[in-house]
Write a structure and sequence with these properties.
Elements lengths: L6 E6 L4 E3 L6 E3 L6 H7 L5 E6 L7 E2 L20 E6 L13 E8 L2 E6 L2 E8 L4 E8 L5 E7 L2 E8 L4 E6 L5 E7 L12 E6 L5 E5 L8 E4 L3 E9 L5 E7 L5
Parallel strand pairs: 1-19
Antiparallel strand pairs: 1-4, 2-3, 4-5, 6-7, 7-8, 8-9, 10-11, 11-12, 12-13, 14-15, 15-16, 16-17, 18-19
């Protein structure tokens, strides 16, 4: 079953390459690097754009609705080791909506942490290896999902409705810069919303999986080549939008 809303894919062209410590995936440096400035000024005005038409997510459009990233999405365009996502008042409590507050996750001292204004920092996952990426999202019941890269292997922690328990999915070898988000957090769209998991594979293509398939079906969005996903979040046009670095990784 396809998504019930159009999606947009935005490919940027005005990037500033910077190699990350893992030596594989470059990041970017912008003329502004502080969060407040990024929130105020970030806009896509020099881009190549393709999109996806409803009701089938597999159909590409030549005229997507691009725009500014909404809310927490505008804060997460500079750092693979930190993620921001609107979410509920508390884990497993969607009573006040899925956009009640901003949740923050980050990598620190060999662990993945999560916090919110009303929730003190706690460790989600401790690693004995190297953590290089983190991204978080909540499902419609307020269950916290997260995807991370540990020693070059992408892993996804998700709630399986078939077994009513959390599972850890090992993503294919070579997956990089995985991102997740609950697409439309408005209360009126709960029945249509999905957590989307997206990433770049070793073939440099952009792929995604969706919650309604229990993340079991992998679909190609665009063959690329792409180096990394900088951001994936809802935009002001109420479309899911990707911001990507074109090209191949520095090796």
């Amino acid at each position: 079953m396809g998504l019930l809303y159009p999606l947009g894919v935005t490919l940027t062209s005005n990037l500033y390459p910077l190699e990350f410590s893992d030596g594989v995936v470059p990041g970017i440096v912008e003329p502004y690097a502080d969060r407040k400035t990024a929130l105020k000024n970030f806009y896509i005005d020099d881009s190549e754009r393709v999109g996806l038409l409803p009701p089938s997510i597999d159909v590409l459009s030549e005229t997507p609705v691009s725009g500014r990233f909404l809310g927490s999405g505008a804060a997460n365009i500079l750092d693979r080791e930190r993620d921001y996502e609107e979410g509920p008042v508390a884990e497993q409590d969607p009573s006040l909506g899925m956009d009640y507050q901003e949740w923050r996750s980050y990598i620190k001292d060999g662990a993945v942490w999560v916090e919110a204004d009303n929730t003190p920092p706690r460790i989600l996952y401790e690693s004995s290896g190297e953590l290089t990426d983190i991204s978080i999202a909540f499902n419609q019941n307020g269950d916290l999902h997260y995807v991370y890269v540990e020693d070059g292997v992408a892993k996804f922690r998700w709630f399986d409705t078939a077994t009513s328990q959390f599972e850890t999915m090992i993503l294919p070898e070579g997956v990089r810069t995985p991102k997740i988000t609950l697409v439309d957090k408005r209360t009126t769209q709960t029945s249509n919303s999905d957590i989307i998991l997206s990433y770049i594979k070793a073939d440099h293509g952009l792929y995604y999986r969706q919650q309604r398939d229990r993340f079991q079906i992998e679909r190609l969005i665009h063959p690329g080549p792409f180096v990394m996903i900088r951001q994936m979040y809802m935009n002001t046009g109420r479309r899911l939008q990707w911001l990507l670095v074109p090209g191949v990784p520095i090796t």
